[in-house]
Amino acid sequence: MNNDVILNKISVIERCIKRINEEYDNNPKNLQSPETRTSFFQKHYVRGKLF
User: Whole-model pTM above 0.70?
Assistant: First the structure.
């Protein structure tokens, strides 16, 4: 992979982690309800892992 691709993937992972932290806000209950929050977390976690 060239450097641009690697830097882009790093940027995607950083944004995903940032959004997870914003939603989580150091409170596990934020991820329990409503169901969309859990789905949001899973989507961004998986996206971060895949990219």
Answer: no
